[in-house]
Amino acid sequence: MGLNPHKDKLVSEKTFNEPRVALNRIYTKRGDTGETSLVGGQRVAKNDARIEAFGTVDELNAVIGLASVSCAETGVAQLAILSAILRRVQHELFNLGSILATLPEDVHPKQPRVTEAEVAQLEREIDSMNQDLAPLRSFVLPGGSRLNAELHLARTVCRRAERLVTALVREDHASAESLRYLNRLSDALFVWSRWASHAQGVEEVLWQPNLSASGL
Question: What SS3 class is residue 122?
Fold first, then answer.
């Protein structure tokens, strides 16, 4: 499969502003009361729905980083394609976190975010990789390889992030593009988990209802 994860990108590298951060001090003690700051400076509780949403996106980013490292550690040359895609997705998730950490009225026109370009790229990658896979005969279970399980873990965290962002979108506190991106990414992670097993020559673990304690 000759899939270039950076091909046909619909936005230029200068679409968004570059970061303006100087992390000289790691702790400020301002969060000791259970509050944190949004991009616009507003102080909110650390269990605020917006914080829960972009905190879960951050968790997803960490799991995808783990899967990207596992791709390299397999030694399977074909998985370099997936590793590069996962690294790109990490940057996209940080862009998503930026926009989720900002109230709609404070969003800058060139502030990092996910757009329809990122959604379309995921769709191309899903379609391309899915062509290499056999139709499923049953539901699949996470496992067969560590990489497969990590990608399924990322999928479940992505679904949780999607549920949290859905609540924000329904209250007009987040963009529809953010929700579409997470929905498509969860689908992509499912396909990538299958494709990773295919590339490694590892059999998928199919659901067998009668392998339960009561079915044996």
Answer: helix
Take residue 191 and report the two structure tokens written for it: 């396909």
Paired residues of 55 in beta bridges: none
- Cα distance between residue 53 and residue 98, in whole Å: 11
CB 117 within 8 A of CB 11: yes
Sequence-ordered list of residues with C-beta below 8 angstroms from that of 9, at least 6 positions apart, any chain: 117, 121
| Residue 99 near residue 114, CB atoms below 8 Å | yes
159-178 confidence digits (pLDDT tens): 999 999 999 999 888 899 99
Partners of 37 in the β-ladder: 43
Predicted pLDDT at 146: 97
Q: Rounded to an integer, what distance in angstroms lies between the CA atom of residue 147 and that of residue 40?
A: 38
Q: In whole angstroms, what is the distance from residue 133 CA to residue 198 CA? A: 7
